Structure to design on (157 residues):
């Protein structure tokens, strides 16, 4: 029997074109501080991954935990909620409300078996473009270590 060894090598060899895992991170960013910090990072040409998807909200206090859960269910590998530093909120106490909500959400996610590192709360002011870029880069590395979101594979929406 004659076989084509070149064809066999091609089939057995790992696919070099196979795409490696690139996590998708959704960011709920406060209009007044962290979204402006993200804008500063972009204007300053600071590097952060293009698979970070920013969503502008008026305040982190307006980020309902259901939004975060929905983002995870619909394909996000991680979610960043970023807003004004405590005491600097334009709506007085929105960031304190967000901190309480995210703490409870992390406990809930842990209870259903999802790593709490997939959700992160960060305080980033409008002048902290470098901190924004560093936060997104660090979160991207952590998410790569965690691997793909196991919930999105179970819940194919």
């Amino acid at each position: 029997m004659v076989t084509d060894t070149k064809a066999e090598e091609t089939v057995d060899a790992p696919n070099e074109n196979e795409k490696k895992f690139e996590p998708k991170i959704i960011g709920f960013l406060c209009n007044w501080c962290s979204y402006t910090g993200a804008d500063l990072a972009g204007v300053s040409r600071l590097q952060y991954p293009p698979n970070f998807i920013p969503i502008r909200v008026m305040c982190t206090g307006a980020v309902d935990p259901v939004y975060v859960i929905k983002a995870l269910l619909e394909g996000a590998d991680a979610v960043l909620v970023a807003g004004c530093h405590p005491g600097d909120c334009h709506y007085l106490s929105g960031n304190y409300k967000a901190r309480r909500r995210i703490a409870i959400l992390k406990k809930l996610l842990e209870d259903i078996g999802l790593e709490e590192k997939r959700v992160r709360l960060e305080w980033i002011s409008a002048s902290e473009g470098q901190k924004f870029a560093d936060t997104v880069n660090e979160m991207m590395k952590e998410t790569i270590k965690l691997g793909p979101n196991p919930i999105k594979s179970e819940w194919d929406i």
About this structure: Helices lie at 5-12, 34-43, 65-73, 94-111, 129-146, 150-154.
